[in-house]
Design a protein that fits this description.
Layout lengths: L6 H12 L5 H17 L2 H16 L8 H13 L6 H9 L1 H9 L6 H18 L4 H14 L2 H13 L9 H14 L3 H12 L10 H6 L1 H6 L3 H15 L6 H13 L3 H10 L10 H23 L3 E2 L7 E2 H23 L3 H10 L35 H16 L5 H11 L7 H15 L4 H13 L3 H17 L3 H20 L5 H20 L4 H22 L8 H19 L3 H17 L7 H13 L3 H15 L5 H17 L3 H17 L6 H15 L3 H12 L4 H4 L1 H17 L3 H15 L6 H16 L3 H18 L2 H17 L3 H22 L3 H26 L5 H23 L6 H17 L3 H14 L8 H20 L1
Antiparallel strand pairs: 1-2
Helix pairs in contact: 1-2, 1-3, 2-3, 3-4, 6-7, 6-8, 7-8, 8-9, 10-11, 14-15, 14-35, 15-16, 15-17, 16-17, 17-18, 17-19, 18-19, 20-21, 21-22, 22-23, 23-24, 24-25, 24-26, 25-26, 26-27, 26-28, 27-28, 28-29, 29-30, 30-31, 31-32, 32-33, 32-34, 33-34, 34-35, 34-37, 35-37, 37-38, 38-39, 39-40, ...
């Protein structure tokens, strides 16, 4: 840390401290710097140190400390205004607004004192010649805070009517306040119109669009614009996460989570900022924070998680129920202090309304990992069937269960389970008990084999031998699923013979017979899938196909009100499709799967079609028919609706995202990836399938230029992605995309970290193209982050890789980049020239060796760019020289490089026109610097002639013309 021995050292230290993160450490440093300033015995040094201290207090949780340095500054101004320079004079008047807001946010400051201060501010602004705009804005804030609607409206109008001057808040901050007022009055659409220039990046400042993004969340939700709200949450939270002074905006994000079914994410946000529970320097934002904590905890308690451990004030553990009571009490007490000071109930009314809010969206998927605090409910609840034991109630349950199973509806097994519970102590007919046992066996899977036997005995006792055989056949199939295929085949063979005999004697019906025949076909298909090779495999497939066709022969063409014949036919068609695929006929398989799906849909059973549409999609994808794959996946989602399990929905959405993204539709692909992540979380697959979905979502957001959202999602994905589970390619791609997002956001150091980590993984791959590209990108990030030594090493690594890969263009680019870095580093101008000369030589050698015309053209352009940059570097290095002869020599050398560049670009014809004229103009300015105006004029005229026929829409041509005209005038003035 630099010792403060003079005013310049103090200013450097103040500037350095301004760039530090908000918080107590920065504030403490500001206090020490004030003490250092006082020892210098320079009045302006003390003034600047006080102003710095005031600023860091304002942008921290210790806003209540602002008043002391400001009072001292004001006293110094009143006593010796001549000691303030112009900047500090303006700064003093500027922070009058901070004092007004600061007093308002401290309930111990009397309202009369605040009103007196407003008058003082107005008087001093008038004396200084400033507009009253800032004064009226502060008056509006006071009136709105206490709930004086009439005065707030008058002050608001006066605020907007007054002239903007340098004391007015920046456009972004003003629009924030104006939009917030409209939102408070219920004018959400108007608020968002006012905020639009800030949200779209037209206006911004140190705390904007941070605050506006947070403020926009509820209005967007209320207007039904949930997708925009989700995007603003991801963008905005990333901005406020590390800013201690933005507790109010942070609270808006917690509130958003509570109102959108993202309670678990809300808990994560609370855990990130434990100090927000206890920081007392800004009571107003603490009130906002505690109110939304109460809201979130009430929501968790309502959902049945009142006893869950949650983040809270340090010193003890908290349950959601306990923290809800604590936060409500804190918020109520704080609101009461403000209301007593203000003489109104406005602050308390708003706090109570905020804590009493109801969710605006049941569940809004965010894309980032969000683990629910309890197992997710099924996507569609099973029919509500009460447990009853009386006769009529049980009869109704039986009727409903039979209806659901006879029509193959979802949740039939749940309905039969309800019948079983209701019939525990009731005497039933054997037929009723047979059906109960049969469906319980179906629900139990392998554990239900014995129950199928029990059901068969009861069916036989009830006088239905065909259904008894069908129950035993179902039991045999379950045994086959458990691996006992041979035993199951032995059992079903006898049942098959028996049922055909019964059917021939008309002792049983088609339905019972088809059930046994279908069970036999299913078991034979299990044997096929065991994968026997050679003649045995062919024989197994042939026997299975014959069995399947028997099912079709039995059920096809049977019309009527029942749906089971169509269902049996569709399933049989699906089995034939499987056999076609196993026999190496994917086209036939796809046709049969599609036909089976269509039969299910025609029968009113679309949920059964999902599996077959997925098969169609897979076969289409293998055949390169991406349009067909997309159609099938869309159909699967449509047909399955809410009946598909969460993990299945996640898989369907993820497959659709990949197909749609493959044809360039990043927006729709991102929506499907988002849904995939959501359903993966619902299924408890956040760390596996969910990570895949988030990785894809992050890539699609990057392609749309939604960098902040993409970064949030990819960081969330990387928490779960692993080489062991997802493959190292997925990890590298996620870090690559994240580096791209962070680079666009200006977070170059973090971008470099992710690119380097990805490069280290790719280092082990047999193909080194990705390794080289990532090393090059990491070097760019390191350079942008102001780390030249690290950047040079990364460029050197990339250059070696490009050389090994035989890629001279990128080798040359790496050398050029190193040359520019050398110019700024220890190697200096001489080292930079050596690297640029190496780049020229490498490019010339590659051009000489190239035979392909396209490659020669590309290398010619690259060589031209290298000479152009070499010339720029030489000219730049001359600025650091002291001797005229050395400077002149550098300019002459630069001019030579520019001429070579122009000549090379000239060989490229129209494709090299803009590059050639750019080099000519650069050469012209060098001619002028060398005292040769005639040469500069000649080059300017050549550029103008090159663009004689250029249209008005060619922006580069227009810019070149303007520069050439400027050069021409400058050259003429020298002659």
């Amino acid at each position: 840390m630099e010792e403060i021995t003079d005013f310049d050292a103090l200013r450097r230290a103040l500037a350095e401290n301004s760039g530090q993160p908000e918080g107590p450490a920065r504030n403490a440093r500001a206090e020490r710097l004030l003490a250092d300033a006082e020892r210098l015995d320079v009045p302006l040094a003390v003034i600047e140190a006080l102003g710095h201290q005031l600023k860091v207090y304002n942008y921290s949780s210790e806003k209540d400390k602002m008043f002391v340095p400001f009072a001292r500054l004001l006293r110094m101004w009143d006593e010796r205004p001549e000691e303030f320079d112009e900047y500090e004079t303006d700064s003093l008047h500027w922070v009058f607004k901070w004092m007004s807001a600061g007093m308002l946010d401290q309930p111990h400051v009397p309202l009369a004192s605040i009103e007196k201060w407003l008058g003082e501010m107005e008087h001093r602004y008038r004396l200084a010649g400033h507009s009253e705009r800032a004064v009226r804005g502060s008056e509006f804030a006071v009136a709105a805070h206490v709930g004086d609607l009439a005065r707030a409206q008058r002050a608001y109008a006066a605020w907007l009517a007054a002239d903007r001057d340098r004391m007015a808040d920046c456009h972004a901050c003003e629009l924030n306040g104006q939009g917030a007022w409209q939102a408070e009055r219920g004018q959400d659409a108007q608020a968002l119109r006012l905020w639009a220039p800030v949200l779209e990046g037209e206006y911004g400042c140190a705390h904007e669009p941070h605050a506006v993004l947070a403020a926009s969340l509820k209005p967007l939700l209320r207007l039904g614009r949930a997708e925009e709200a989700r995007a603003n949450h991801l963008r905005g939270f990333r901005l406020v996460r590390s800013m201690e002074s933005m507790r109010g905006a942070y609270a808006d994000h917690v509130e958003f989570c509570a109102l959108t079914g993202n309670e678990a994410r809300g808990l994560e946000l609370l855990a990130e900022r434990p100090a927000y529970f206890t920081d007392t320097g800004h009571p107003r934002s603490r009130l906002d924070f505690m109110a939304v904590v109460a809201l979130l905890m009430d929501r968790l308690t309502e959902l049945g998680h009142g006893d869950q451990r949650v983040p809270g004030p340090a010193g003890r553990t908290w349950t959601a129920r306990e923290l809800a009571a604590h936060a409500r009490a804190e918020a109520t007490e704080l609101a009461g202090r403000f209301d007593r000071r203000n003489g109104t109930s406005h602050v308390g009314d708003r706090a109570r309304a905020r804590m009493a809010q109801r969710p605006l969206v049941e569940r809004l998927p965010l894309g980032v990992r969000t683990v629910r605090p309890a197992p997710a409910p099924a996507p569609v609840a099973a029919p509500s069937v009460p447990d009853v034991t009386d006769g009529p109630g049980l009869a109704a349950l039986l009727a409903e269960a039979r209806r659901l199973s006879d029509t193959l509806r979802p949740h039939a097994l749940e309905a039969w389970a309800a019948v079983a519970r209701a019939a525990r102590d009731v005497e039933l007919e054997p037929r009723d008990r047979a059906e109960i046992a049969d469906h319980e066996a179906m629900a139990r899977g392998p554990e239900g084999v014995g129950l199928f036997e029990r059901a068969a005995e009861l069916y036989a006792r009830a006088g239905d031998p065909g259904e008894a055989l069908a129950a035993r056949a179902r039991g045999a199939y379950v045994r086959a699923l458990g691996g006992e295929v041979d035993a199951a085949l032995g059992t079903v063979a006898g049942l098959y013979d028996e049922v055909l005999a019964l059917y021939a004697d008309e002792a049983t019906g088609v339905r019972q017979t088809a059930s046994v025949v279908m069970s036999r076909a299913r078991i034979l298909m299990r044997r096929v899938h065991e994968g026997a090779a050679g003649p045995a495999g062919r024989a197994a497939r042939a026997e299975a196909e014959q069995a399947v066709r028997e099912v079709l022969a039995l059920v096809e063409g049977r019309a009527g009100d029942e749906v089971w014949p169509a269902a049996r036919a569709a399933e049989a068609r699906g089995m034939l499709a499987e056999l076609a695929g196993l026999c190496g006929d994917p086209g036939r398989a796809a046709e049969l799967f599609g036909r089976a799906a269509g039969e299910y849909v025609a029968a009113g059973l679309p949920w059964f079609a999902v599996e077959y549409e997925v098969q169609v999609a897979a076969l289409a994808h293998q055949a390169g028919d991406l349009a067909g794959a997309e159609r099938a996946l869309r159909a699967a989602l449509e047909y399955g609706g809410p009946h598909v399990e969460p993990v299945g929905r996640a898989q369907l959405h993820l497959q659709l995202a990949e197909v749609i993204g493959g044809r360039g539709e990043a927006v729709e692909a991102a929506e499907h990836a988002l849904q995939a992540a959501h359903w993966a979380d619902e299924a408890g697959e956040s760390g596996t399938l969910g990570a895949w979905a988030r990785q894809q979502l992050g890539g699609f957001l990057l392609r749309q230029g939604r960098y902040a959202e993409g970064a949030e999602v990819l960081e969330s994905a990387l928490a779960d992605l692993s080489a062991e589970t997802h493959g190292d390619g997925a990890v590298v791609q996620a870090r690559w995309w994240l580096g791209d997002c962070l680079g666009e956001l200006g977070e170059h150091r973090s971008a470099a970290e992710h690119r380097l980590r990805a490069a280290d993984i790719a280092r082990e791959w047999p193909e080194q193209q990705d390794h080289a590209t990532l090393a090059h990108l990491a070097a760019e990030s390191l350079s942008s982050a102001g780390l030249p030594a690290e950047a040079d090493r990364a460029y050197a690594r990339a250059g070696e890789l490009w050389r090994a890969l035989g890629n001279p263009q990128f080798l040359v680019r790496a050398l050029r980049a190193r040359g520019w870095l050398a110019l700024r580093g220890e190697a200096g101008a001489e080292g930079a020239r050596v690297l640029m000369a190496d780049a020229v030589r490498e490019c010339e050698d590659a051009l000489e060796a190239a035979a392909d015309p396209v490659a020669r053209e590309q290398l010619t352009a690259e060589l031209g760019s290298t000479h152009r940059q070499f010339g720029d570097l030489l000219a730049r290095s001359a600025a650091e020289e002291a001797e005229d002869d050395v400077i002149r020599a550098a300019f002459e050398a630069a001019l030579t490089q520019m001429d070579r560049a122009a000549a090379l670009f000239g060989t490229l014809g129209a494709d090299g026109l803009h590059s050639r004229t750019g080099a000519e103009l650069a050469a012209g300015w060098l001619e002028a610097d060398l005292g040769r105006p005639d040469g500069a004029e000649a080059r300017a005229r050549a550029v103008l002639a090159a663009y004689e026929t250029a249209g008005e829409t060619d922006e580069t041509a227009q810019a070149r013309r303007a520069e050439a005209t400027q050069m021409l005038r400058a050259a003429r003035s020298e002659t």
